[in-house]
What we know:
- The complex is a heterotrimer.
- Chain A is mainly α.
- Chain A has a single domain, classed as Non-ribosomal Peptide Synthetase Peptidyl Carrier Protein, Chain A, CATH 1.10.1200.
- Helices cover about 55% and strands about 0% of the residues of chain A.
- The longest helix of chain A has 16 residues, at about 75-90.
- The model of chain A has no long low-confidence stretch (mean pLDDT about 90).
- Chain B is α+β, with helices and mostly antiparallel strands.
- Chain B has one domain: Peroxisomal Thiolase, Chain A, domain 1 (3-Layer(aba) Sandwich), CATH 3.40.47.
- Chain B is about 35% helix and about 25% strand.
- In chain B, strand 6 (about 165-170) and strand 7 (about 175-185) form a beta hairpin.
- The longest helix of chain B is centred in the C-terminal third of the chain and has 14 residues, at about 145-160.
- The mean pLDDT of chain B is about 90.
- Chain C folds into 2 domains: about 20-250, Peroxisomal Thiolase, Chain A, domain 1; about 260-410, 3-Layer(aba) Sandwich (Peroxisomal Thiolase, Chain A, domain 1), CATH 3.40.47.
- Chain C is about 35% helix and about 20% strand.
- Chain C is built from 14 helices and 12 strands.
- Chain C has helices spanning about 5, 35-40, 70-75, 85-100, 120-135, 140-145, 150-160, 175-185, 205-210, 245-250, 280-290, 310-325, 335-340, 345-360; strands spanning about 20-25, 110-115, 165-170, 195-200, 235-245, 255-265, 300-305, 330, 360, 385, 390-395, 400-410.
- In chain C, the strands form 2 sheets. Chain C has a 10-stranded mixed β-sheet, with helices on both faces.
- In chain C, strand 7, helix 12 (about 310-325) and strand 8 form a beta-alpha-beta unit.
- In chain C, helix 3 runs parallel beside helix 4 (about 85-100), helix 8 (about 175-185) crosses helix 14 and helix 11 crosses helix 12.
- The longest helix of chain C has 17 residues, at about 85-100.
- Chains in contact: A-B, A-C, B-C.
- At the B-C interface, helix 3, helix 5, strand 5 and helix 6 of B face helix 6, strand 3, helix 8, helix 9 and strand 6 of C.
Amino acid sequence: MDRNELIQQLKEQIIKQLNLADKKPEDIKDDDPLFVEGLGLDSIDALELIVLLQQEYNIKLKNAEEGQTIFRSVSTMADYILEQQAGSAN
Amino acid sequence: MPEESSVHITSTALIRNNKVWEGETLLFEGDGQGMDFLHSLYENLDINYPKFFKMDALCKSGTAAAHVLLKNFEKEQYKPEEVGIVLSNKNGSIEADINYYESSKTFPSPSLFVYTLPNIVIGEISIRYGFKGENAFFVSEKFNAHWMYFYVNNLMQAHPIKACICGWVDVVDEEYDACLFLVEQKSENGINFTAGNLDILYNRA
Amino acid sequence: MDDQLQSNEIPPLKGEAVFIAGLGVISAIGNNVAESLNALTSGNAGIEAMKHLNSIHKEELPVAEVKLTNEALADLAQLPSRISRTALLSTVAAKEALDNSGIDITRWRTGFISANSVGGMDKTEDFFEDFLQNPNAGHLRSVVNHECGAVTEITADALGIKDFVTTVSTACSSSANSIFLGARLIRQNRLDVVIAGGADALTRFTLNGFNTLMILDNQYCQPFDDNRRGLNLGEGAGYVVLVSEKVAATLAEAPSVTISGWANANDAHHQTASSPEGKGNLLAMKGALQKAGLQPADIDYINLHGTGTNNNDIAEGTAIKTLFDGNYPSMSSTKSFTGHTLGASGGIEAVFSALAIQEGVIFPNLRFDTPMKELPFRPVTELQKTAVKNVMSNSFGFGGNCSSLVFSKYIAR
Lengths: 90, 205, 413
């Protein structure tokens, strides 16, 4: 899967996992902040994103703080996933 | 100390048997079941609060009932700490407990876990309207009008509470039973706040 | 349940003292008041590797378990061991409190007000395992309702209390709320004696849930420390026997501690997190002082909510900074001994607060190392022996439910 496909897939997964019933994938811009001023996600949403990474991508975060940089935007999430996948392929 | 008779029930909201009532008025009748009913209710009542979709069924029905109850409430007339919330139910947070339990077989869900306490519905209503007064949640077999009257009346007489949302919010097996009352100290209009009247209004539909 | 409460004819006893005539407690640091006091004054924490709870996190998450099997607890409670651990813990502590008071409850209008957040979930979990093996073993819905109310009823029956029995369910502030409700009912002259507090047993349900919130410490917790990592879950029960002045006058030994103030407020910020500035915490502490007719400088000791999570300690600390503004009393989190016992914590900490006044001691905040950089004060790290007149006990729960209680040494008017 290339980066663009991953980003599109992530947007759909985020909407589903976080019950953002009023949002469509195209409402989420690749580089928009996910928290507070952007999508307005909160700390529980961040924990759900950690579950999403584990469930869908088999990536386990050790502590919630790591999420602060990884979940800055859909782009940063995709980059992190690609980096982890590249790492584990070696 | 204000006279007891100056305390009135100024609004009631009832969600029961797939119908939504504001006082005597039928606002909405749904044909869907469970979450479908709650989501069609959301559309029909113009709740317009996206956070609704993240909530468990107990919080959804409590939030929807509060939305109906507070339609004409001017919250600016009270300070945040002057508005209290006292709720009760029979089944605690059973729906959320089951859902979280199901999720915990694979990936335990934090957003389901946070709803596994019955008083979270009070938190959700407080967050939406910014109410900061005293709140309490009691678990009992059935709606106990005498206890509710006693507790709320005591708050209104001896504490800084000038308005209080009280009543019953219960969810089990996709059956919703929410009956909320708005009780106010200043108001001249409304039904006298008595245990008898709470009982009549609760058993109306 | 409330025949006593329907009559409006009895006038409230305005401003009357509500005494604490008995204490009962069980937690990881002891099975009764004497053992708990001994642990608190000698600095022995009850947090350890998991022994009784059967969890996949056994190796990695320390907990504060009561050091007794269900069978041993059942013997103490004089109940069958098949009932839930929460009910056993509740009955052991409530019986101790009532025995300690020496009150004959048949003489008085007596209530039992109890709180818990997990109910009989431990038994439900055992059932669930059988159920997964054999779905015909029973109906999930008939047991998964862990029945917070049922736990209260079991203990009320064991104590023989019938006049008034109710269950409060407001998360981690539940048992603080049951205590002030008891005090209120006595002031309202609806009851003469109230046994009030709460109980909670450790379950996989809560352990896994708190784990998903990533607020459990895999080491021993360090409340109010700059390097705190989270909380350790605990279990237990704590009850106080509240009595009116009339009842107190009949007792062989005059009670020396009163509950003088209480308040509850909602933080209105988030389902589980406190607002960073501790808005609800501040309202509760302020309200309790006001109710007690005290100034911030009158408080000698704060028994902190102090869970050890990043969020709680900064919110609670900031609210204390705002309210006490330079006049900081001694303070400590006894959760560094007992872990966070959830629905039981307000009851257990009310017992510890009363002991602080009775015994003239302030308990240390264990494992404290580095002060929080945001706060101009630090908790007590050594046992202090000093006269204690007024204690504030904080309990803050999910759902924004914030409560503060004030306990005072009784000074005859």
